[in-house]
Amino acid sequence: QGIETRNPEFAAMLREVARVAAGSTAAVLLTGPTGAGKSQLARRIYAVRLRRGLLRGPLVDVNCATLRGDLAMSMLFGHLRGAFTGAHADREGFLRAAHGGLLFLDEIGELGLDEQAMLLRAIEDRVFYPVGSETPVSSDFQLIAGTNRVLPGAASFRDDLLARIDVWTFRLPGLAERPEDLEPNVDFELARASVAVKRRVSMNKPARAAYLDFATGPDGRWPGNFRDLAASVLRMATLAPGGRITPDEVATEVARLRAKWGLARPADVVEEVLGAEAAAQLGLFDRIQLRGVIETCRAAGTPAEAGRRLFAVSREGLARKNDTDRLTKYLAKFGLDAARVMGR
Questions:
Q1: Whole-number pLDDT of residue 163
Q2: Among 161, 292, 308, 339, which is least packed by CB within 10 angstroms?
Q3: Rounded-to-integer distance, Cα 238 and Cα 144, Å
């Protein structure tokens, strides 16, 4: 169904989801952190069941976190005209709208206890009462629920309702748990960002290496998961000169993410390699240039690859293209060699 992953555990879970979607109409509970893709997976399950003829009606997608106060009952179960102040016309409600189809209740843990009680009866008996009505209304719908909360044992969630909605439970891992999926999703978000900024956006190799090094490293927290990643790539795409994201845009974005996530400022790699005393003797130009060389070396992995990245443009005008030698001579000016820079 188009959800690709390089993570073996997630791939195995998706294969089981596919079998459930194609062979069962029972309720499904999708758990996992916000932004992990629960809504996307619910839409995929709906597409499979629709294609298999297991349902014929629409997909009704509801974010329960937006249902607050007296209007929650009305939005879910509908109301009659005049049922309360402002009820100028009948409303069918989300449950009735999902008749014959699939109702996706995202963040179901945010529903109040009264709404939970009515939802339980609607699931068990396929009937419920709209607000202000004494006549029951029927609706035959399939249910997928989503939550980022731990529902078992929660005082704010009914155990009997939980028992009805977790016939099949699948936990979606967060982005930080799937580091191998970051690179292809960066490409996916670049394509989306290109549409948003109305120009083709790409990322050069040093920028990609620096961004992925941070994104997949220990500081790549991604608390908002794919929402964080999408926003991050969009910011870089918006600021990229000529639609080409460079290490400058990446450095700015990484600093923004670190501040947003409350991470400490990373150690200065120049001080780390040279020592604080020697680093303090460098002028600003040399310090900035050396920092970029060190970061490129570490992202590249080998002196030869680092040289190719650093001298990709200027090397074309040389008769003899020895990138490693040029890098070695540059580092020697500071009393450094590639092995020391790369921490080997």
A1: 95
A2: 339
A3: 36
The answer, as to whether pTM is greater than 0.85, is: no
CB-based burial label for 140 (10 Å; 0-12, 13-18, 19+): exposed
The number of helix segments (H) and strand segments (E) in the chain equals 16, 9
Residue with tokens 């003899």: 320
Which pair of tokens denotes residue 105? Answer: 């209740």
Q: What share of the chain is helix, strand, coil (3-state, %, to 5)?
A: 55, 10, 35
Give the separation between CA 200 and CA 191, rounded to whole angstroms.
8
Q: Are strands 127-128 and 137-138 parallel, antiparallel or unpaired?
A: antiparallel
User: Could you tell me if 35 and 224 are in contact, meaning their C-beta atoms sit under 8 angstroms apart?
Assistant: yes
Per-residue burial over 26-45, b = 16 or more CB atoms within 10 Å of its CB, e = otherwise: ebbbbbbbbbbbbbebbbbb
pLDDT tens profile 102-118: 999 999 999 999 999 99
